[in-house]
Amino acid sequence: MRLGRRLVLLTAATTLLGSAVAAIAAASPAAYAATTGRPAATGAQAISAAADQGNAGWVRCANLSQGTPEDVYLYSFGDPQNPTVLMNEGYGSVSSYMQLNAGEYTVAVRPVGVAASSPASITTSFMVSAGTNYTVASLGSAAAGRRLQVLQDQIAAPNGEALVRVIQASPKQPQVTVSIGADTLARQLALGSVTTYQTVQPGTLTVAFSTPDGHAAMPVTLAAGSVHTIVVLDGTSGLKIENLTDAAASQVAAKGGAATGLGGTAPGPPAPGLTPWLATLVGGLLLAVAGGFGLRRSRRTDAVAGS
What we know:
It is a single chain. By secondary structure, the protein is an alpha+beta fold. It is about 25% helix and about 40% strand. Among the domains are: about 1-30 and about 275-305; about 155-250, Immunoglobulin-like, CATH 2.60.40.2890. The chain has helices at about 1-25, 30-35, 45-50, 275-305; strands at about 55-65, 70-75, 80-90, 100, 105-110, 120-130, 135-140, 145-155, 160-170, 175-180, 185-190, 200, 205-210, 215-220, 225-235, 240-245. A hairpin with a 2-residue loop joins strand 2 (about 70-75) and strand 3. Helix 1 packs across helix 2 (about 30-35) and helix 1 runs antiparallel to helix 4. The longest helix has about 30 residues, at about 275-305. Residues about 5-50, about 250-280, about 285-290, about 290-295 and about 300-305 have low confidence and may be disordered.
């Protein structure tokens, strides 16, 4: 009876250990590797999945140059063989923010479907700092000289206000004047230009764009504490205005949280902390050791009794 009870105890401890290790692998591949000595399995976008919360920045990519869709490659300096690839990114597309470990990265743009080893159409390298948001935008036109520009995004607005900047991405209108409500944000903004952030009063306001050929306007809602990028694009019948949310009013600035743009989605909440699972792991180890010693003692007692 005592031997059977100890076997049950040992089996329960083993199951408990397996559950704890699996949970650690899901919450943090790095912690799993440190615990087991083996790397945890990751998806194709391992750069994003393995980023550490305390040492991470956020990056999104935007194709704001007219032309055929392209593939966008994001390479980590420390792991260039496993890039994150954004497929078939057309004019006006903006990815969701991707969480990345702080460090050096390269963005390369190639025609859709060509080999990753082929020369890039345009490329740039930049540093990601912890707690900082970035937009890597393709700006300009093939005729005027296209480029990748790395923009640092604000993650919080002054108390009771909103922040807004403008990107002029309309090649059909070489100069655009932009106003929001009663405030003029930029005058005669040229193709590929990016304004600095400016404070505006929150609320539902009208963004207006004036060009030599006409006028366009649309309502936007800006919450207090939020940060936005207004993008001027060419639509099927005149100018099109896109309102990207760089930071939502409710997000915590230290986490760099990212919002949406042109259909992108914000990243999910951070994974739960590892402390409860580590405590479970230690408890399971103690149970396993105790069960093992008890089993050995039981066998010795049975052997003495049988002799």
